[in-house]
Amino acid sequence: MSGKKGNRIFIIGAGFAGINIASEIRKKKHAGEVVAFLDDDPGKIGTEIDGIPVLGPINAFAGILRTTPADEAIIAAPTATREELAVIYRILSRVEFTRIRILPNISQIVNGHAHLVQARDIDPEDLLGRNPVSIDLVESLSYLRGKRVLITGAGGSIGSELSRQLLSGGAERLYLLGHGENSIYRIDRELRRLQEGGVGEKATVVPIIGDLQDRDFMTFILKRLKADVIFHCAAHKHVPMLEFNPVEAVKNNVFGTLNLIRAAEAAGTPRLVLISTDKAVNPSCVYGVTKRLAEMLVLEQRKKGLDFMVVRFGNVLGSRGSIIPLFKEQILSGGPVTVTHPDMLRYFMTIPEAASLVLKAGGVGENGGLYILDMGEPIRILDLAKQMIRFYGFNEEDIPVSYIGVRPGEKVHETLWNGEEEPERTEHTRIFRVKSVPFTGEAGRIAEKVRPVCFPEPDSRDFYRNRKMLREILQSHFPTMRVPEDEPEY
Predict the structure, then answer these.
(1) Cα–Cα distance between 168 and 5 in angstroms, integer?
(2) Which of 108, 290, 298, 311 is the most buried (most CB within 10 A)?
(3) 415 in Cβ contact with 278 (< 8 Å)
(4) Which of 241, 240, 169, 167 is nearest to 205 (CA)?
(5) Between the CA of residue 446 and those of 217, 443, 453, what are the distances in Å?
(6) Largest interatomic CA distance in the chain
């Protein structure tokens, strides 16, 4: 979204990114007018860049605005730490700007050139968690140059961010697969807008509406697409929702993955990367079990010449269905902010960092490899809630916190590996390879046991959609999974 005509803009940061943005705004007159740069560098303060004054320091902003008023601020400091961004935001938030935008982290700015189209409204996750790792996307994505890349669940949080970053990787084609037409429409349109704004290379973007549960379609489409790499992000993910819909969770997450694997094998797809979750470790919920089974199905693949692997990580900040959008909604409606348990801990990573590491792991990974992303230290959900309340300019007296109890299928603490898995460092400091017990077809046998529950079969019609039977079968293989005492048959 561009600024209004006549919009007076302050650019925070007089480095390469700020200069790029100012130059672009000048060419696009509808975007507004840059009235000044704001910077802390004493060597820049008092100078001019292309006729635009550099003012400062940043902590003197309120006084500066009295003589140089502006409507909007764009934070162009891609190398700034979370702590530095938090200070900048606190200073800016005291001023009544109509809008505050921010450019992405340095690892998302390829070849040292920032674009105005990449600027977006600042969000709480920009200031939360640890400082993201900086990855050279051009180097990390070199294995994808000239390749055809398929992303399942391309309209979701991770899938859409992978798509954005892959624009810069020199891929020949990006296939965006999803069963929701609206989400695929949005990411397809966004990628085309980014390309028009000068981001990335001239990859051909191909939107595809289809369902992983449709085995015939998956076999047909993978043979036609001739993808070199598949990033399998598609999954039903909402833990409490899937506790109420366990059969659908298995149909989509297990059989959808199985259909994809078999179609990829038949098409001779050289590389497949499954996106997994810490909830697959000692799973307590149906979602966790389905993702563990999906991991096992991928790792059981042993067809010569194919590299099929798993990348596992924890929660990402700001994903659809996560607590960040929920907390935002609760805060802006006056509260309370609902926290399930005061000691609830979760690992968190920003979506761009997770996507960057997934792409990196997809290049260094080997067949049958299980890789874990280093998530840092877990964050207490209560602390996250308090930080967000402050981000929106309130305190706990304005917006109270309410405890609602742990929801079905949830754990208070999550882990990234189990007792049988032994993580070891790789050449990249934030990617671990896991040495684990080899699989011998167990996941395939479990899938066949639950197939009559998920799909009607002539000899076992009484089993169809029997969720109690489904849970009993799954629990016999995954004893950590909880089964409600009042679980109905249907």
Answers:
(1) 30
(2) 290
(3) yes
(4) 167
(5) 24, 5, 12
(6) 83
Query: Which pair of tokens denotes residue 316?
Result: 């990402």
pLDDT at residue 2, rounded to an integer: 45
pLDDT digit string, tens, across residues 112-131:
678 899 999 998 888 876 67
Which residues in 209-227 are b (16+ Cβ under 10 Å) and which e? Answer: eebbbebeebbebbeebeb
Three-point CA angle 237, 349, 328, nearest 5°:
70
Give whole-number Cα distances, 489 to 65, 243, 285, in Å.
Answer: 66, 13, 17
233 forms beta bridges with none
- The C-alpha atoms of residue 394 and residue 386 are separated, in whole angstroms, by 9
Q: Is 226 a catalytic residue?
A: no
CA dist 41 and 80 (Å) reads: 13
DSSP state, 173?
Answer: E
Binned at pLDDT 50, 70 and 90, residue 111 comes out as low
For residues 75 and 105, what is the distance between their CA atoms, to the nearest angstrom? 11
Model pLDDT, residue 157: 92
Residue 470 structure tokens = 């489904």
Cα dihedral 62, 67, 72, 75 sign? negative
Alpha carbons 283 and 478: distance in angstroms, whole number: 7
Q: Which two tokens stand for residue 286?
A: 């149906």
- Token code pair at residue 270: 């050289």
> Please, which residues have CB within 8 angstroms of residue 188's CB and are 6 or more apart in sequence?
176, 205, 207
Residue 144 to residue 205: CA distance in whole angstroms: 15
Q: Is the pLDDT of residue 368 over 50?
A: yes
Integer Cα distance of 47 and 367 in angstroms: 55
pTM above 0.90, yes or no: no
Q: Is the pLDDT of residue 49 over 80?
A: yes
Pairing of strands 307-313, 315-317: unpaired
Closest CA to 12 of 117, 104, 98, 89: 89
446 SS3 class: helix
Quote the CA–CA distance of 111 and 147 in Å, as a whole number: 20
Residues 319-337, mean pLDDT to the nearest whole number: 87
With H, G, I as helix, E, B as strand and everything else as coil, classify residue 379.
strand
Domains of the chain, earliest start first:
8-122 (3.40.50.720), 137-435 (3.40.50.720)
Residue listed under structure tokens 């859409």: 160
| Cα 284 from Cα 279, distance rounded (Å) | 8
**Residue 223 in tokens:** 């043979």
Q: Exactly one of 147, 237, 251, 279 is catalytic; which is it?
A: 279
Q: In the prediction, which pLDDT does 366 show?
A: 85
